[in-house]
Structure formats: C-alpha cells, structure tokens
Amino acid sequence: MPHPLTAQTRRRLLGATLAGVIAAPLMMGAAAHAADAYPSKPTTILVGFSAGGAVDNVARQLGHGLGAAFGQTYVIENRAGATGTIAAEAASRAQPDGYTLLLGTQSTMVVAPGMYPSLRFDPIKDFVPVSLVASVPLVLVVHPSLPLKTVQDVIAYAKEKNGELTYASSGLGGPQHVSMELFNSMAGVKMVHVPYRGEANAITDVLGNQVPLMFSNLPTLLPHIKSGKLRAIAVSGLERSPTAPEIPTVAESGLKGFEALTWFGLYAPQGTPDAVVKKLESGVKTALADPATRTKMGEQGMKIEGRDSAAFKQYMQTESVKWGDLVRKSGIKSE
C-alpha cells in the first residue's frame, strides 16, 4: 500500500509544478527573443573545399546575399579535406544558435557516409537542412578522336572494351566519380576509374587523350566543347541545360531516370531553433531573388533551386538512399 504524501512533500511537488509552469513561458520567450534578434553578430559559413572552387563561390555569393538581407556579416571559412567532412564535422559540433552554418554538397552529405565507416557525424541526424541553394549538371565528354557521339555509342564501346575502358574524375567519391558509377550501373557496363587530385588535372589528361572520357561540371567543360577539343555526349540532369540546350540528357538518350547533379545546400546544426531556421530560409530566398546573384549563378551554369527546409529535408532523404545504395554496390571506399 503506497504511503500517503506528507504535507511537506505536497508543498514541494506543488512548488516544483508551479516553477515549471512559470519557467516554460520564460524559456519560450527567451527563445523567441533570440530568434527575433538573429542575427545580432557575424555568422560563419563553413566550406569543406578550397577557396576559388565552385562550392566556395556559391558560399560567398550566398553569404553576400544573406548579409545584404540581414544587415550583418557572413564570413566564409574554408576547412578543406576528406570530401568536405572536416568542415561538416566541425559544423555538427557547433553551438546550435544559427551563427555557425555549413554550405554542404552531395559529396559530403550523401556520398561520404557510405565511404567513411568511421564518420563522426550523421548528415541526417546532426543537421537541419535550411535550403537547397543551387545545382549544376555534369556533362559526359569524350576525346574527339574516339568514334563516339551518343550515349548508346559509349555503352556499346564500353562493352566492346570489356572492362578496359578508363574514365577520369577529380577524386574518389566526387560527383564525377559517382556519376560515372551510376552510368555503369544503369547501362550494365564496367569502366575503370582513374582518380586525379582535382578536376583540372583530370581534364588535362582527357584533353590529351591519356584517359578517353569523363563526367565533369558543364560550366567547366563548356569552353573545351565549344572549341572542339572535347565532344559532348550528354548532360546529367533530367532536363537539358539552358546553358547548352543542344546537348541531350543521358535520360532521354536511353538511360531513363538518370540524374546526377552537383548541388549545394545550407545547413544548421541540429537543435537550432525553428524560428532561426525559418529566418535563414527567408534570407536565402531573398538572396537568391537578387537579379545580380541570379545572373552570376546563371553565367556559371547553375540552376537556382531555393527549396525550403521541408523540401530540402525530403530531397536529402531521397538522395541519401540513392547514393548510399550506389556506393555500397560499387564498393567505393575511402583511401
């Protein structure tokens, strides 16, 4: 039989309950005030790649736009290495107050988890997706000395070479690498991966026909395509690129549903107040609506996405399954 509560115990319980009732609105009020005040000081956007690259360029354009929208400073901090995971780990451990953010890519957030078994962050559990900012298609190119003009030509040639055809990429697990592995998987062929230290080195050897073909970002390869030094086969988006509408998509060329994009998204550490996330989401929308930003990104061959937090979260889940499965099936592992 339970002991009856003493008068002293009842008073303590009542006091604790009243304290909780009083404290809850105060805490909610403090959180709301913090969100209203955000940003009241400079914010850092971590980037997992070197300055001057595509990810860094997007981060700087976005940071400039957010700064203009909020009247505050957004500082870009480059922490390059390990497919962007060094920066992502640092961002995942940051104070969840909106003042440390991550400009992440598909390589870091959906490919790396399958490559690095000892990864010390979970892209799904440790981050709040704020907004999918932009994306850029890749293009499959071949050296013009090869008698290949279509996706079906490439597939037939790869089968003829019976596993001896090589392709270049900017490095293990990068978009160029996984795009070709997706192509291999969907086309039922096998090509040998030749990884390079960076996109420029890979392109140099394809231009010299040391390696006959590769996927790489369309804006980077477009000058070589226009000069005739490389032949474009197909782009990796579901739709043709406005930058080069004459190039067909892989999907329309026989591999239905093929899509592989380089994308860039803004993330906050898990636990960041919803009101701050919403404010950031609104700031990104404002930044991407700026005509100068739209023009500059368009000139770089980028598609402005601007998907909100909910849509970006759903996209992340879909991409994680898609590329996680591919990494496992292809046996892609970190060096």
What does this structure look like?
- The chain is of the alpha/beta class and 335 residues long.
- The protein has 2 domains: 43-136 and 261-330, Bordetella uptake gene, domain 1 (D-Maltodextrin-Binding Protein, domain 2, 3-Layer(aba) Sandwich); 137-235, Periplasmic binding protein-like II (D-Maltodextrin-Binding Protein, domain 2, 3-Layer(aba) Sandwich), CATH 3.40.190.10.
- The chain contains 11 helices and 10 strands.
- Helix 2 links the parallel strand 1 (43-47) and strand 2 (74-78).
- The model has no long low-confidence stretch (mean pLDDT 90).
- Belongs to the UPF0065 (bug) family.
- Pfam families: TctC (PF03401).
- Keywords: Signal.
State Rg. Answer: 24 Å
> Would you list the SSEs in sequence order as H and E?
HEHEHEHEHEHEHEHEEHHEH
Summarize model confidence as the mean pLDDT: 90
Strand content: 15-25%
Summed up, the helix count is: 11
**CATH fold category name of the largest domain:** D-Maltodextrin-Binding Protein, domain 2
Largest sheet: 10 strands, mixed
CATH class category of the largest domain: Alpha Beta
Assign an overall shape: globular
> What is the straight-line distance between the termini?
65 Å
Poorly predicted regions are none
Q: Label the structural class.
A: alpha/beta
Going by CATH, the homologous superfamily of the largest domain would be Bordetella uptake gene, domain 1
- Kindly state the number of beta strands: 10
Q: Number of folding domains?
A: 2
* Second-tier CATH architecture of the largest domain: 3-Layer(aba) Sandwich
Helix content: 40-55%
